[in-house]
Amino acid sequence: MAIKISFKSKLILSYAFVISVSFGFMAFFLDKNLEENSLHNIQASLVAQANLIENQITAESIKKEDFASLDILVKLLGPKTKCRITVINKKGAVLSDSEKPKQEILSMENHINRQEVRIALTGDIGIDTRYSPTLKIDMLYVAIPLKDKSEITGVLRLALPLESVQKTLLAIRKIVFIGLIFALGLAFLLGSVVAGNVIRPINRMTQISRKFSEGDFSRRIIQIPKDEIGELADTLNKMAQDIEDKIKEVKTQNQKLAAIFNSMIEGVIVVDKKGRVISINPTTEKIFGVSKKDVEGKVFLEVIRNNDIPEVINAVLRKGQGASAELALMYPVNKIFEVNATPIFDDNEVTGCLVVIHDITEIRKLETIRSDFIANVSHELKTPLTSIKGFIETLLEGALDDKENSRDFLAIIQEHAERLNNLVNDLLSLSHLESKEITLEKKDISLRQLAEGVILGFKSQLRKKGVEIKDELPASLLIKADKNRIEQVFTNLIDNAVKFNKEKGLVRIYSQDVDGKIKIVVEDSGIGIPEKDISRIFERFYRVDKARSRELGGTGLGLSIVKHIVELHNGSVGVESSEGFGSKFWIVLPRP
């Protein structure tokens, strides 16, 4: 539910926002400027100190690596400069350090890769700022080259902690923060006063406007200051007067159509005696994809380019009698409508026609589906029942005593009974899925493990046909779904991939990432699907090769079950196939 924020709160918050942003920018630039100036001054000071110390270091002591004399020098000057002094030869080895004992110098890490040292060895002044893991603070490093005439013999580096700079910046930040709090308090106070003066007249206008919305236009807004709000009040008062004057006129015009438009949920079209559209309701707009403002005043055929409905309208206008018709339109929409047209009379003269359009497409479609379903079920049941009946009659007529053939007859009867059982089970499963009353028990599932479990059940079929199956799903691929239902999906898809595959064929199961969702593909090298059949492959009882499908024991419901299960998981299904070159059945499921 959306949170309602009053105008007063918005005004106060706007003051606070402006002040906060202003202080924020000021504090940001002030902080940056102070930090940059402080660092620049410290760098200049360190460079000056380094130049002074450089004069006290002889080139001979660097070349001969005189640890003793250099150690005495840096430990003497370190406390005076309040810096860490390090002398490094041109190979990066540390010769002395003001904060390290002489015995630890030799074990110190080579400094040749330090940025400031690398720059100094090129002849320039090296400067770098980085975090010191030892001291747990940012350090500023300045390094200058040590030269013997034009030859660089080593590097003198000075390091200084930036703790003092950070303390100064922290103090400034505190001052800015205190100023911000004070300014915000002032903003809340000022905003409350200003908002109060603005809101009081607005509240009075709101109260009167509520009366307007209830149909009482006799009220007027008074005691409003002569400013923009006063102009708004005057406008509202004038509007109330104008509305009050026009209500009678509007009521008279609405009485003709109010009963029709308020009671009809079907598409309603009103035309005049010349066939021009006077009005249409939103249902008509939705059915034909037109807009009311674009059709009013135009001839019906200009608006909806179809001859069937105008013929009904013209017959009503001509005869002055109602007419009904069931029309199957192909354009502008492919639907079936029941059209009822009634003439509109004024002083016993036909002045127009009222057309009521009822969309019965779904009703007719359901009737067709029901008819097809009954026919398909009857056909699917009749074949095995006829066979079972025939073999039973044969057994009863004496074949039961023929032990050599009776077992074969019973095996065939068992096979057809199993087929009937599979058909009934699939019908019950499909009916359960279509009822939308199923409750999914969703949990995290490893698709690879689930696929491997399903593949094990097809071991004998794979060996019999010599089909190789590759499970290329990542081990880490997880989805949140009903395990039993998704297992049924994999079973049906893999079953089809094996049944309709070629001898020594291949089945691949892999995944792809599509728009943040998981796409699982079951690809086979089988007989493929003709292009004309692809759009209907997920329909109930639809088979590409009916004879072969029945021979392989299929019920024609497997893919329909797959589609319903995937859609229950907010997913989608599809197929890509080329006849003779195999098929790719895929499902798309949301990520957990």
Q: Rg to the nearest angstrom? A: 45 Å
Structural class: alpha+beta
Output the CATH class name of the domain at 439-590.
Alpha Beta
CATH topology of the domain at 439-590: Heat Shock Protein 90
- Unreliable spans are 546-553
- Name the average pLDDT: 78
In what order do the strands lie side by side in the largest sheet? 2-1-5-4-3
CATH architecture of the domain at 439-590: 2-Layer Sandwich
Major sheet characteristics: 5 strands, antiparallel
Number of helices: 19
CATH superfamily of the domain at 439-590: Histidine kinase-like ATPase, C-terminal domain
Note down, in words, how this protein is organized.
- This protein is α+β, with helices and mostly antiparallel strands.
- Among the domains are: 96 residues, Beta-Lactamase; 71 residues, Orthogonal Bundle (Helix Hairpins), CATH 1.10.287.130; 152 residues, 2-Layer Sandwich (Heat Shock Protein 90), CATH 3.30.565.10.
- It contains 19 helices and 17 strands.
- Strands 2-1-5-4-3 form a five-stranded antiparallel beta sheet, with helices on both faces. It has a five-stranded antiparallel beta sheet with strand order 7-6-10-9-8, with helices on both faces.
- A hairpin with a 2-residue loop joins strand 14 and strand 15.
